[in-house]
Amino acid sequence: MHATHFLGRHLSTRFVLLLAVIGAPASLLNAQTNSGFGTTNSVEVHADSTPVLQIDAGKVTGNVSSALYGLMTEEINYSYEGGLYGELIRNRTFKANAQSPVFWNAVGDAAISLDTNQPLNSALNVSLKLNTSNASKTSPVGIANGGFWGIPVRPNTTYRASFYAKAKHFKGPLTIALESAAGKNVFATATVPKISGKWEKYEITLVTGDVPTSKENKLVISTTKPGTWWSKHGTVWFQQVSLFPPTYHNRPNGTRPDLMQLLADMHPAFLRFPGGNYVEGSTVSERFNWKETIGDISQRPGHRSPWGYWSTDGFGLLEFLEWCQDLHMQPVLAVYAGYSLRQQHIDPGPKLEPYVQDALDEIEYITGDATTKWGAQRAKDGHPAPFTLNYVEIGNEDEFDRSHSYDGRFAQFFDAIKAKYPKLQIIATAGVKSRVPDLIDEHYYPDSTEAMEAQSHMYDDHPRIGPKVFVGEWATRVGWPTPNMAGALGDAAWMTGLERNSDLVVMASYAPLLVNVSKLSGPDRSMQWRTDLIGYDALCSYGSPAYYAQVMFSTHHGNEILATGSQNIPTRDWQPPTRWHNGVEQLRPPVQQLRQIFFDATRDSGSGTIYLKVVNELGTPQPVKIEISGVTTVEPEGTAVVLKADSPNDTNSIDKPTNIAPVTETVDGLGTDFTREFPPYSITIFELKTK
Ligand code: AHR
């Protein structure tokens, strides 16, 4: 893990990862900058000083990538465990801590402890031992779990509970109940009448009636029997105690519907998974070892995430793929590439071979038919149809590998994958010289709106030969825990640059995507990294203003990039922060003139609709003149989708989930030449009907 991952640390923008390719001058390649319609930081002065945005609809500078807007996730901030993964029980396999059954409590006068002598199997090689001796009719004993900062209870809802158990001097019954945290209210109960002396799986449903919605609840498994008639000293061992509410599309072992709906509304084209740092792990043994994340969940050992908490791997490789299927996203698979965060690496050559083979097997698991070894395994796991895979990423942020072994490691993966799957597009995560990757993954995490805005034109002059760009992680890190309007403005300015250059930047994904906001600081916190796009607790979820900016951008664009130009764009002075190197302050960068209006235009070639995106980061209403050439007419009536705030600090939260949300309005007075006043701190997308 890189030091800059820690909360509150200043994370400077990552440098662009450029390959050693000899690029032709950008001006020869990018019709936009060659057209006199440059959208660079140069500012021309117009007679009446009203800002002018010019669109030349007669000049298409490139195609908007159909895969431009996607998602990136990993197990961070309780994204899956306590997040997207529907499981409600925390530490369901008792492996989160080797010393004690953390997140479990004894009920009544019970004694509970971890027991490594009674494993369920070699994957789940520990169990929770309950001594029932002190149980009586009036004082039951048992075990209780409070979930991930609560267990959501909703009225008239069916929950599926299950657990493995075996008993000695105890035959049952066990009562399973959904109760309020203090135990005053019982919302649903069921009984397992008999527990045998061998490990068996018990499955029950819990159905709530007309109860209030709440989250301060727990699951309790208890008994009033101390033991059998011949011994009052009973013992029950438990493993994999699980509770699922209804899931998205009712998938078994599935996902949380409200979060899935928020993601579906983004219309994402792809999912980059499983990391991020999560694919790398802190050590080689804590990498995302995909073969241990498939099949029956009781056979998955789980592992510690580099973000400091246990992952059961109930949300494993097939669950990622089914998530893609449910949201019609294409998978962008990151394979473990022989580097882990604590500077462990595998030398290229024979030692790396097993890891290369693992990646080939993983690709076969995803794409192979049932006649292949791993395709057959996928079919056995419940998914006979192969998935379509176009992109494979080799590792993650491998420039942090101080052994500088990435070039060799990349070449070994690249050659093996291309030999077997020549059509796959291979993504590099750092500069390499030995091979030419199809794409290069760049990450940007500026700590201010200004820093993000300042780089929003960075791709305008980028060479158009060589690998395409995948901005696999980016975010304006302003707002806590989720971005506020200032963050959304920085993001939107940046996205105008991505879209304007999406002939080059073919895919981009904000990161991190998800954060459980239940406990934002202190030990055992639910957030390891700010700023995150979507927040939630056990019961509710919300999209940040930056989330809504993404929804707006990904659902409103054409397939053609139009040439644009501008005049009189207001600017202000901005002092970029001084960089530090080994504790020494470096030379202060010169003050920059920062634009305060950002825009781009795309067109749907089928309907002729032009999508004009305008970001006004000023705190005052801003009249802007729009001039459109290259079309005969623009219909006077169109629509505008607007996201705005009274203050850049305004934001959304669990309590005010849609405080800042887009509003769609009908506008008139449009034409090839019109003036519009843009609200302070606003993001506007016009849909202009043209002929
Ligand atoms: O998005 C959070 C982390 O930032 C990712 O895990 C890593 O790739 C990057 O450094």
Labels describing this entry:
30% strand, 691 residues, 15% helix, nine-stranded mixed sheet, 38 strands, alpha/beta
Overall shape: it is globular
Structural class: alpha/beta
Q: Tell me the strand order in the biggest sheet.
A: 36-35-38-33-32-27-1-34-37
Distance between the termini: 54 Å
Describe the structure.
Strands 36-35-38-33-32-27-1-34-37 form a 9-stranded mixed β-sheet. The chain has an 8-stranded parallel barrel with strand order 2-13-16-19-20-21-22-23. Strands 3-6-11-8-9 form a 5-stranded antiparallel β-sheet, with no helix packed on it. Helix content is 15%, strand content 30%. The chain has 691 residues and is an alpha/beta fold. Helix 7 crosses helix 8 and helix 11 (485-500) packs parallel to helix 12. The chain contains 12 helices and 38 strands. The structure holds alpha-L-arabinofuranose. Alpha-L-arabinofuranose binds at residues 2, 74, 76, 275-277, 396-397, 443, 473, 511-512, 529.
Short description:
Helices cover 15% and strands 30% of the residues. With 691 residues, it is α/β, with parallel strands linked by helices. Strands 36-35-38-33-32-27-1-34-37 form a nine-stranded mixed β-sheet. Strands 2-13-16-19-20-21-22-23 form an eight-stranded parallel β-barrel.
Strand-helix topology:
Elements (H helix, E strand, L loop, with lengths): L25 H4 L1 H4 L17 E12 L5 E4 L7 H5 L19 E4 L3 E5 L11 E5 L9 E5 L12 E11 L5 E7 L5 E7 L7 E8 L9 E7 L11 E10 L12 H8 L5 E4 L3 H4 L22 E2 L5 E2 L5 H10 L3 E6 L3 E2 L3 E2 L7 H15 L5 H8 L10 E4 L11 H15 L4 E4 L10 E6 L4 H6 L13 E7 L10 H16 L4 E6 L3 E3 L17 E3 L4 E3 L1 H11 L4 E8 L3 E4 L5 E2 L2 E2 L6 E4 L1 E7 L6 E7 L5 E8 L8 E7 L18 E5 L5 E6 L3 E7 L3
Parallel strand pairs: 1-34, 2-13, 2-23, 13-16, 16-19, 19-20, 20-21, 21-22, 22-23, 24-25
Antiparallel strand pairs: 1-27, 3-6, 4-5, 5-12, 6-11, 7-10, 7-12, 8-9, 8-11, 14-15, 17-18, 25-26, 27-32, 28-31, 29-30, 32-33, 33-38, 34-37, 35-36, 35-38
Helix pairs in contact: 7-8, 7-9, 11-12
The structure holds alpha-L-arabinofuranose (AHR).
